[in-house]
Each structure stands twice: as structure tokens, then as C-alpha cells.
């Protein structure tokens, strides 16, 4: 099976990190779409960040643009992370007015997803967590998280809400931090349309083996709804080109995605602050496609190696893949 590939449109435009307002000029959403299609002919989907790329006022325009380009809306990513009023939480804020406002915003984004014929709402609840000890009610925070996610999922049963986890940043501790606690958060809602997004870089920073995280989601009941790909050195969410740090990790990951029958999007999520964005993201796509081909060509051999549990034979196999 060949996967469908997508990109996050905003990755072509946001060039602002913690130290510089931008290393390049930020193009408009239409310009980013044109660049993406020119540099990445293999993509068939686009993820749109709510408010940045899409809002209630431009849904028809964006839907037509994607239709004209021949690509689908792979997911809607609500912007629950950049508005300053969400600095101390969205649906877990201690302020009931903020909890209501953020839930209403998520409802708006869900209606937009329906209008865009998109069935994935990717929830990266980045501000829902805490920074200081003895300053957060962990139990109450997770209860609000459950209640409001549940409300959303029950109101929009035809949509799938994918919880994207990350251990830290912008908060020091995130409620959706790793695969296991995110599975618990999804299960607590009692809604089968709440599942998980794995961002490979987030998993690396969390100290996970990302392939094992795939298996956990499978064992929990096919809860892996969506995938974001990027790379990093393991200490921070560097959002680098896939394959520039890890190799065997991605072979392992692509094998287990195939083994567990994952059939969702393979989406790139990286911020090339200094590099040409379209070309950097295109490189990630080429790497993942290469890993996919390697796994397809050697699937039975990899399966056999895993069963043998012989690290030396596995090492020889990996050397063979790189021509050594």
C-alpha cells in the first residue's frame, strides 16, 4: 500500500523562532499553496491551520483553491496555541470564560472541517499543561480536558479528533505528553472518534521509541488517526528534515506502520526557518517515500529479523541498506 502524503501549509511561511522575528519574508497562504504544488508534485493533501490559513470568512475560497489544485484538505489544525488569552490554558483554563471561548472556537473549526470535506481535526493543545509545581490541580485540569474533548466529539460524531501529544513547549509539562497518557485521555472521553496524532519529533523528545508508540495505539483499538513527520536530535522539537538525524528509527517506524495496517495520511510538519521551505519539506517527503520503498522491498526479511532477535544480523541488514 502506498500512503497519501500531505503537508501543513503554514510550514511554508512561519519563519519566526524564539530569537528572530523571521529569517525570510512570510508569504501569503495562496503563495504558499502555489510554492507547495510547484515543489512537491507528490502531495495529495494540505493541512490548514485555523485562523492562520482558514477561518469562517474564507472557507469557500480555500475549498475552491484546493479543488483547483487537485488536493484534499487532510486536516484542520485549530490555533489553540498562539492567542495570548490562551497563555494559561484553553479548555483546561481556570477561567470559565476562556474554557467556553476556546471550546466555541474548536466548534467553529469543526464546522469548517465539515465544510472542507475533511474528517480530521488535529488537536495540539499546546497551552493545556503547567509550568510550576504546587501551582496546578492535575486532576481538575485533566477533568476539564476530558469533559470538553468529549463535548466536541459528541457534537461532531462524523469527525475524528486526533490528540497530538508533545511532552513540553510552550508549557514545561503538557497534559497530552506521550502516547500512553494520550491514549488514557482519549479513552476517558468514551468517544471512539477521539484518537491520536503521532508527531515523530515530539515522540523523540518524549524519549519514546516511536514505532512502539504505533503499536500501543494499535493495541488500544486502532487509535492512531494521523502522522506528522520531521526529525530532531532528541532534546528539542527542532523540526528538521526527515532522515538528517535518524535512519534505523524510520525503517522501524515505517515497518510497524505497515504491520499494524495504518492507512491515514503521512504528513510533513517542520519549520525550515533558514532553508528554502518548499525544498526542505520536499526532501522530507522524498526520504519518507524512500523508507517506504525499502520497507516494502524487505518487509518479510525485517519481519524475520524481528522474530530472530539477533542484533548482529539486524546490524548487517542495516549496513546492506546503506550499501556498506
From TrEMBL:
Keywords: Carbohydrate metabolism, Cytoplasm, Isomerase, Metal-binding. It is found in: Cytoplasm. It holds the Pfam family AP_endonuc_2. InterPro entries: Sugar_Epim/Isomerase, Xyl_isomerase-like_sf, Xyl_isomerase-like_TIM-brl, Xylose_isomerase. One of its GO terms (molecular function) is metal ion binding. Residues 38-289 form the Xylose isomerase-like TIM barrel domain. One of its GO terms (biological process) is L-ascorbic acid metabolic process. The keyword Cytoplasm applies. This is Putative xylose isomerase. It comes from Flavihumibacter petaseus NBRC 106054.
